[in-house]
């Protein structure tokens, strides 16, 4: 099968979201004029090491984007297997004044370097200062870039000096309503490495 996105795919469900998979979930927490916000985004990733930088994309002007524009900061909470129910509950489309921390029963804590809440039991949280918001092609597509200025790691997720994904089992988005958890991990050496 071949199709041009501009012409449509002819399938009952759009395959694009399932092609780039699994995608990590950026569980974005913000604070704004109407209160705290917590929402998952599956167009999320790390984009640079030094300084560490991340990105996430928003389709539409959502509360997260509004709050980041107002404050210039956000936190990325990673989602492990133990946070699936809370993450899903926080994805509800609700009014801006609704606190998704309370709605989802996610435990809230304060960030250290930015005025923003974070998910207390997330395996890791990246405290970020927004560096750029880019309006992408299409209606209501925005790319948010941020520099990581503080990192929280749950102590029990560190084993032998490594932040060990086998302990917290990252959750990924596969497309449609499909998700996965990382349950098998192996190492590969690059050619030429000793």
TrEMBL record:
Residues 18-165 form the Flavin reductase like domain. This is Flavin reductase family protein. One of its GO terms (molecular function) is FMN binding. InterPro entries: Flavin_Rdtase-like_dom, Split_barrel_FMN-bd. SMART domains: Flavin_Reduct (SM00903). Pfam families: Flavin_Reduct.
């Amino acid at each position: 099968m071949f199709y041009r996105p501009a012409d449509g795919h002819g399938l009952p469900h759009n395959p694009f979201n399932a092609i780039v998979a699994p995608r990590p979930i950026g569980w974005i927490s913000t604070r704004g004029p109407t209160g705290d916000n917590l929402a998952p985004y599956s167009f999320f990733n790390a984009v640079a090491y030094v300084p560490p930088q991340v990105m996430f994309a928003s389709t539409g002007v959502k509360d997260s984007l509004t709050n980041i524009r107002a404050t210039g900061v956000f936190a990325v909470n990673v989602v492990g297997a133990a946070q699936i129910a809370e993450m899903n509950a926080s994805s509800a489309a609700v009014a801006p004044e609704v606190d998704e921390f309370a709605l989802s029963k996610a435990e809230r804590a304060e960030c250290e370097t930015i005025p923003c809440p974070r998910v207390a039991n997330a395996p890791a949280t990246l405290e970020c200062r927004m560096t750029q918001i880019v309006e992408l092609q299409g209606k209501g597509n925005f790319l948010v870039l941020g520099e990581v200025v503080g990192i929280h790691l749950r102590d029990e997720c560190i084993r032998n000096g490594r932040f060990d994904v086998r302990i917290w089992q990252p959750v990924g988005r596969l497309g449609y309503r499909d998700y996965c958890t990382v349950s098998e991990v192996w190492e590969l050496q690059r050619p030429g490495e000793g």
